[in-house]
């Protein structure tokens, strides 16, 4: 399962607000209101907040809301990490000529739902990792883009050498994009292609192969 994002969840509105991280406007005078600048494109604090709230709203509806709070970490940082990585991967895929169709996404997701036992079970599995239901297709798309870039590089993602080759290629892409993160959220590591504070790997196993 993708594990780039972690999340918090609550069972009531009051608890939801109490558990929310403080996401204020960016203190970086050069880029006011930005959580990060990626290739000249602003990822705003308001965009980050919207994604955080989307995940929390979905998790708040879960019967396991309290357990999700205990088992997940720093949502804002993990979410920003994912948003930045999405941009790096998209650029790397474009440079490699890799595209993913809607049909590709539906086919992959259909297989994953079958292996998970049902569409709802797959949603629940991903929600445990901080992925809201309406973000699943985007996560599947990233999985397929990673596969496509790896194939372009002749890198076997199942082998350490293949993962290292893919990581080097994405690190090169990352460096070329001039990623600047608001210090309140940490520092982007071009070498690892990750927001330093999150410490979550970006290359992980498919969700349907995980146990709920």
Describe the structure.
This protein is mostly helical. The protein is built from 8 helices and 5 strands; from the N terminus they run αββαααααααβββ. It has helices at residues 13-19, 45-60, 65-71, 75-96, 102-116, 119-127, 136-153, 160-176; strands at residues 34-38, 41-44, 180-181, 188-189, 194-195. The strands form 2 sheets. A 3-stranded antiparallel beta sheet has the order 2-1-3. Strands 4-5 form a two-stranded antiparallel ribbon. Strand 4 and strand 5 form a beta hairpin. Helix 4 (75-96) packs across helix 7 (136-153), helix 5 (102-116) crosses helix 6 and helix 7 (136-153) packs across helix 8. The longest helix is centred in the middle third of the chain and has 22 residues, at 75-96. The radius of gyration is 17 Å and the shape is globular. The chain starts with 12 loop residues before the first helix and ends in a 17-residue tail after the last strand. 37% of the residues are buried.
Trace the largest sheet across and list its strands. 2-1-3
Biggest β-sheet strands, sense, barrel: 3 strands, antiparallel
Number of helices: 8
- Straight-line N-to-C gap: 10 Å
What is the structural class?
A: mainly alpha
Give the strand tally.
5
Note poorly predicted spans: 1-28, 203-212
Indicate the proportion of strand residues. 5-15%
- The value of Rg in angstroms is 17 Å
Helix content: 40-55%
User: Tell me, what's the shape?
Assistant: globular
- Mean pLDDT equals 79
Topology pattern, helix = H, strand = E: HEEHHHHHHHEEE
């Amino acid at each position: 399962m993708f594990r780039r994002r972690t999340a918090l969840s609550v069972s009531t509105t009051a608890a939801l607000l109490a558990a929310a991280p403080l996401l204020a406007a960016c203190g970086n005078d050069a880029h006011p209101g930005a959580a990060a600048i990626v290739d000249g494109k602003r990822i705003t604090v308001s965009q980050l907040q919207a994604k955080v709230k989307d995940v929390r709203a979905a998790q708040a509806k879960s019967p396991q809301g309290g357990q999700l709070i205990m088992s997940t970490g720093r949502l804002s940082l993990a979410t920003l990490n994912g948003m930045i990585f999405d941009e790096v991967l998209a650029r790397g895929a474009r440079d490699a000529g890799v595209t993913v169709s809607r049909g590709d996404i539906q086919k992959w997701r259909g297989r994953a739902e079958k292996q998970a036992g049902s569409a709802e079970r797959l949603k629940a599995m991903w929600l445990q990792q901080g992925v809201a239901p309406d973000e699943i297709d985007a996560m599947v798309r990233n999985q397929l883009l990673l596969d496509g870039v790896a194939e372009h590089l002749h890198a076997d993602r199942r082998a350490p050498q293949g993962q290292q080759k893919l990581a080097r290629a994405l690190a090169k892409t990352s460096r070329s994009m001039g990623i600047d993160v608001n210090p309140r959220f940490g520092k982007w590591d071009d070498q690892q292609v990750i927001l330093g504070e999150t410490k979550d790997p970006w290359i992980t196993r498919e969700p349907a192969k995980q146990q709920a």
